Amino acid sequence: MTHIIERGQKFSNWERCPCGNLSEMYCVCEGIYDTRTHDTESPVYSTSQYKVLICPSCEQLLILRYINSEFEFEDHDPHFAGYTKQILYAPAKERHYSIPRTIADIVAQAEKVVPTSPRAGFILCRAALEQICKEQAIPETKTNSKGEVEHLDLKKRLNLLLEKEKLSKDLREIMHGIREIGNIFAHDSQAYLPDKISQGEVEVLIGLVDYVLNRLYVDNARTKEAVDELKALKEKLNPTPKGKDESNESDLPF
Asked: What confidence tens digit (pLDDT) does each residue in 161-174 have?
């Protein structure tokens, strides 16, 4: 995503922290780097704005870099500049307790490597699917009709998981889509990879992994929490007398 600002202006300190807080951050320090400082002869240059922020909610550091694309001196807009944002450092996002720690750790690793290795981020998103299958006890092998042990690739394991949990068609498409994108970066040679992989593209895939985790684990946990809260509220408002059949709901006032 390109951010357009007037030349000479600085970016706002309003940001969304991985902890979920959206507010004006406390700016520890900031600075601007212009490549012309060290290379006065090149007709191509770029500028970067750096910010070190502290989230007022979780009190963790957030380090950002806004960088514009290189361009010729005579081609630049005299009034406005376009920048892309890079997250150089951010605190790990806290995920719901219902998500197995082994899976949450893999996604957290994907988030950490995004600024330095977007390709590794894509591969780790695929690894998260493999760990989901492992946590759900989806086998890695099966014995075929000839009595031979057959290896199950991730595609087959996901299909077994989707069938076992009776998951929806849209979730099937998303999970296989994550697998397919991860395969490109895990298996294909460098010659077939995109020339440029943006940080934002990896963040989109991580967001899709989070969507899958919410559907698989968080939704079920929150439903159970809601049922338990309702049960506790009913018991508090209408306690069952001793010796009375608890299953007889006809006596309840609601």
From this structure: 999 888 888 999 99
